[in-house]
Amino acid sequence: MATNTKAGHAMTTLKKLMAAVLAISLGVLAVGCADKSEDTTTERVVESQGKKNRIRTSGNAKLPEGWPEELTIPDSMVLEAASTSSISNDESMVISGTSDQSMEDVFVEMQEIVANAGFEVIFERTSAEKSSFSSEKGKETVTVAIVPAPADSAKSYVTISYSAN
To answer: CA angle, corner 61, sides to 43 and 66, nearest 5?
Structure first.
């Protein structure tokens, strides 16, 4: 029974994080299609009704303030976008980027990074179109989604979501 509850919580968390992933990924796509002369960091902060969002986009993006030190990113990953969202005491961060590694290689490396940071994988799914997993450590959750990139660009698009409740 506990496994079903944990899996149900993981699916709910995964759905919420995937919505955030989609929003950030669209931002990354927009930046990727932008004129290279305008390739500077864009930052936006939105505050309303106790919600705060911070979005940074471009190849100059940095890990969000408060990102766990032990949750590193692959050396091959070029960070394209980072977002922080706070609602009440719940904070979520999403980072997106590209990697010159295959989707499979990034998936294995990210599972190692997450395990070394003390997280337990509670859900994973792989297919030819995408690979993703969700993991927990106490009240912290990390979700990773990786999709193959078009043949004429990086090998993988990577999105990593972190939340602490």
So the answer is: 85
